[in-house]
Design a protein that fits this description.
Elements (H helix, E strand, L loop, with lengths): L1 H12 L9 H8 L2 H15 L10 E9 L1 H4 L5 E6 L10 E4 L2 E4 L8 E6 L2 E3 L1 E3 L6 H4 L3 E7 L10 E8 L6 E7 L5
Parallel strand pairs: 1-10
Antiparallel strand pairs: 1-2, 3-4, 5-8, 6-7, 8-9, 9-10
Length: 181
């Protein structure tokens, strides 16, 4: 009976034969996609002004990133903010060149798509194509759009990157990647 229990437990935690167990894939499998997607939904809800920060698990310091197009550089840019600073959703912003970019989505975006292991930049793309350094961590892409979108130019796109070493995923980085800057 003990042998059957051990075999059953092993089969639940082992990846299927031939599965990619490197980098983000292995980390994502270990992190339970549903828990990551739930945490990403909470973050998007907080940024939209619909939830309190008290329910969010943030690392002591969170890196905010902008994609290359927004910054006018080949690598994008980032800033590190403390958990205390991020208690105010309006603090989720950063400067690139002469412009400020806010992670707060515009109002009226009522359709939410949340997908673990992906990134949205108008369409679904690998995070490694945007910020390779973040792609090896468990991450969730979030896209918000109006009720009847006419194009992807109306969407808000962010990817949340998590530390999954504790029982609850903690946000360590976020990438804002609006299709049209």
């Amino acid at each position: 009976m003990l042998l059957a229990l051990l075999i059953g437990c092993a089969s639940e935690s082992s990846p299927p034969a031939g599965a990619d167990t490197s980098g983000a894939s292995a980390a994502l499998a270990a992190a339970r996609p549903a828990a990551l997607e739930g945490a990403a939904r909470e973050l998007a809800s907080f940024l939209a002004g619909d939830a309190a920060l008290d329910t969010l698990a943030l690392a002591d310091t969170v890196e905010l990133h902008l994609a290359p197009e927004g910054t006018g550089t080949s690598t994008g840019t980032s800033v590190r903010l403390s958990r205390g600073e991020l208690r105010d959703r309006n603090a989720w912003r950063m400067r690139a060149g002469q412009r400020w970019y806010s992670f707060v989505p515009p109002s009226g975006l009522t359709q939410t798509t949340v997908r673990a292991g992906t990134h949205f930049n108008c369409r679904e793309v690998p995070l490694a194509s945007r910020v390779p350094a973040l792609a090896t961590r468990p991450h969730v892409g979030v896209r918000l759009e109006p009720p009847t979108p006419k194009s992807c130019l109306e969407t808000w796109n962010a990817t949340f990157v998590f530390d999954t070493s504790a029982a609850t995923p903690r946000l360590v980085a976020a990438l804002y990647d609006q299709w049209e800057w």
